[in-house]
Amino acid sequence: MIEIIVADTTNSYLQIAKLADVIWREHYIPIVGKPQIDYMLEKYQSAIAIEGQVENGFEYFLMTYDEIPVGYISIKKEDESLFLSKIYVLNTYRGKKIGKTAMLFVEEKTKSYQLKNIRLTVNINNTNAIKAYEWLGFINVGPLVTDIGNGFVMDDYQMVKKI
């Protein structure tokens, strides 16, 4: 059974940080390299960084499968959009409808906040994710390059889905 649980405790932030460490290293090192992933995990996905994001309006959710933590979501309410900051599932749990359940959850959140669309960014070389988002109805609205410090940039596409 898939559950999506509000992450609002130090313990849940630590669980998410552990998941991020596994998922990001596995998936993103081939795309952007280990130095950038080491930097980004510390800056954006440590328990302390997550707590700071929550204090600044981000919401985090832990996803479990048969009570095992297998992924997480991060969203932020904006003026007209719900920003889907993060949606990640452990590789060994893909294909079990966890991602689909998560996207339905995000769509429901968007509706409950009375927002017009979901907005996300995805690395331009993350072709499988781009295809999946397009299949889900997201439109690529163009490139977005963000300087994240320490000589690193996030080279993304911005994608939007109307709700």
From TrEMBL:
InterPro entries per the UniProt record, alphabetical: Acyl_CoA_acyltransferase (IPR016181), GNAT_dom (IPR000182), N-term/lysine_N-AcTrnsfr (IPR051556)
N-acetyltransferase domain: from which residue to which, for each copy?
3-163
**Transmembrane residues, as ranges?**
none
Domain of life, per the record? Bacteria
Q: What is this protein called?
A: GNAT family N-acetyltransferase
| Native source species | Flavivirga amylovorans
